[in-house]
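User: Could you write out the 3D structure of this protein bound to pyridoxal-5'-phosphate? I've included everything you need below.
Assistant: Certainly. Input first, then the structure.
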Amino acid sequence: MVSERATRTTPFAAMDVLERANRIDDVVHLEVGEPDFETPAAVTEAAVAALRAGETGYTSSKGKPELRQAISEYYDRRYGVDVSADRVVVTSGSSPALLLAFSTLVDPGDEVVLTDPYYACYPNFVRQCDGRIETVDLSADDGFRPDPDAFARTVDAETEALLLNAPANPTGAVYDDDTLADLVSLADAADATVVSDEVYHGLTYDGEDHTALEYTDDAFVVDGFSKRFAMTGWRLGWVVVPPGYVDHVNRIAQNTLICAPNFVQSGGIAALESGEDFLDDVRETYRERRDFLVSEVEEWGLSLDYTPGGAYYLLVDVSDLPGDAFDAADFFLEEAGVAATPGPDFGSNAEDCLRLSYANSAEQLAEASERIQEALADVELHPAD
Ligand SMILES: Cc1ncc(COP(=O)(O)O)c(C=O)c1O
């Protein structure tokens, strides 16, 4: 019999839309959060050299010591924080890192606080551990930035973990260091542990990224190479673990993951050592695409009440279109040939929205915009209120 846990696990709509879109000719893909850049050549060369050198066996389940050291140095260089390599556990992407964090923290019935909208997979990580989900509402009127007062009303003695994500998926929202400091300190006051998903760091257009580790050691910080270094298919990430948890996280990693692929880890070392210039260009390109798409949404007659400050997503309100967000996604795909992800996957506050990813070329974005505008020209937009 299929377990109740498996039954409760919801599909990942972006991947479902991708599968559908792939069966249709000539679709512009704005549904998946996958960089269209190539992995930096130095990374590929390092991994190929490692393969040729026979680095094909298991590594330590925490990861190669050189990679863990490179990650430790990265925290020092980028954020000025001292993170011992002993606290770094390397994983096959940041997704298993999230699973390790929740598996280590959450007992059945424990409360995990998320924002709504949230990254679609977060509730499913909590469900795998039979945790209980509480959400804090975010709204476009505040740029989808969290309000620490709203968190203070939700995070309490019942809360085991507080999940933070900035730049955020699906909104692209970022928040300042004071907000992060406030959120960390209210988690601390409630004796809850912060899990901070920092996978979009490096893709912040205005201002600086701040890690939760600047404010506390008692946080699981999840990060990876997928987004920043255009390495989604390499499957490489990590989690920085609070000092008292390393052994427990490692036990779960040893049993369930064994280790991240050996030669891929060598690619990761090269990325951290040589990737910063690449990132400056990438960030600038994404910023231009964001500015383009933000102004185009208005041309379409749809509403975007905020400007995302990072990652590569826009959450566009489609409540003026006939039907619900699933109908809107169908309309975009079938009438305009543009794939977009329906918002309900990202929480009730994204229910009336489509998520558009601008991890696609300027030409493809221009094509998408032209198609959408043309398709919408025949549609009567009707305000919901
Ligand atoms: C917020 C967020 N966290 C984690 C992930 C997982 O990334 P990966 O497992 O490729 O590192 C994604 C992927 O889209 C994401 O958007």
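The radius of gyration is 21 Å.
User: Perfect, thank you.
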